[in-house]
Amino acid sequence: MRLLLLTAVTMTAFAANSVLNRAGVAVAGMDPLDFGVVRLVSGALALAAIVIWQRRGFALGGLGRVTAVAGLLAYIFGFSVAYRGLDAGLGALLLFGVVQITMFGGALVAREQVPAARWIGAAVAMAGLVWLLWPSDEVSVPMGAALAMMVAGAGWGVYSLQGRFEGDATQATAMNFILAAPVALVAWLILGESGPMPTTGIALAVVSGVVTSGLGYALWYAVLPSLGATRAGVAQLSVPVIAMAGGMAFLAEPVTWRFVGAAVLVIVGVLISMRRA
Questions:
Q1: Where are the membrane-spanning stretches (predicted)?
Q2: Helix axes of 88-109 and 143-163: crossing angle, nearest 10 degrees
């Protein structure tokens, strides 16, 4: 029960990231790349302060750290690029579909046991997500943006897979952010658009970076060793559902029967998958 509760809190933090991102970009008018960089840098500063305060020390972590940092950067920049040209629902389907493939693939490579119930739960939850997010109207699919979202999904899958091997979740997350932040800043200087950032957008990005990303990702790394790759993968299918519910609660987005039915399907699938083997 404790693991289920911590997983639910983590998924809520991920969903809050989505709501904050939509509010910062769509409502406050902040550029998606600017939002991602401010989010990453603010998270790095906050996590560094926590590590110093708790006297955990800063450990590079070898090849595993390189893998995690590369995955984190691929996710943040892939998502930022894709956000500019891809339908939101279709983008989420691509993102979470690739996350599933990456994490189930990682589990099979590592010879993790994947019981039949988990495959069934994943299929049920994914079907609910397709029902929820599939565009009702015909939309164009820019190949560049679609590829960027797939890179983001693979990056997040790799980042999550690496979390299974981390002994100190807070320190590992801090080092991932601290090492990724300078790379993100350089990329932002090269690719970013000049011009002032909206104050509201900056504030939302900082909250996202410090609370729902920094602390949320640390909690994610804390629960990953107990969840394993496949349960962790399926659990993330609940994030778009929670994010949409948050949009309905805080951004006045309408509640539909399609959402209710699809949300029930996703949650049932996740609960089936969360059962121990």
A1: 32-53, 65-83, 89-109, 116-134, 140-161, 173-191, 197-220, 232-251, 257-274
A2: 40
Cβ atoms of 236 and 163 closer than 8 Å: no
What are the DSSP calls for 73-127, one per residue? HHHHHHHHHHHTTS-HHHHHHHHHHHHHHHHHHHHHHTT----HHHHHHHHHHHH
Instruction: Please give the model's pTM, rounded to 2 decimal places.
Output: 0.91
Q: What is the pLDDT of residue 118?
A: 93
pLDDT of residue 72: 95
Tokens representing 61 are 């972590």
150 close to 30: Cβ distance less than 8 angstroms: no
The residue whose two tokens read 């990702």 is 217
Cα–Cα distance measured from residue 5 to residue 89, given in angstroms and rounded to the nearest whole number:
27
**If you average pLDDT over residues 76-88, what whole number do you get?**
79
pLDDT in tens, 202-242: 999 999 999 999 999 999 999 999 999 999 999 999 999 99
Question: For residues 218 and 227, what is the distance between their CA atoms, to the nearest angstrom?
Answer: 14
Can you tell me the distance from the alpha carbon of 108 to that of 119, in angstroms, rounded to the nearest whole number? 12
SS3 254: coil
SS3 69: helix
CA distance 261 to 233: 22
3-state helix, strand, coil in the chain (%, to 5): 80, 0, 20
The DSSP annotation for 141-202 comes to: --HHHHHHHHHHHHHHHHHHHHHTT-S-HHHHHHHHHHHHHHHHHHHHHHHSPPSPPPHHHH
- Assess contact for 274 and 7: CB atoms under 8 A: yes
